[in-house]
Amino acid sequence: MSSMTAQMATVGTGQVDPITGVGSYRSNFNFFAE
Known about the structure:
By secondary structure, the protein is mainly α. The protein has helices at residues 3-13, 25-33. It is built from two helices and no strands. It starts with a helix and ends with a helix. The relative contact order is 0.23.
């Protein structure tokens, strides 16, 4: 997915992901863990 880079960036910054709109970087990390 092209959004993976954005997700990883969100994990590092903890900011809202511009693609998914998810604000919880921990939630994003769990999404990939699942």
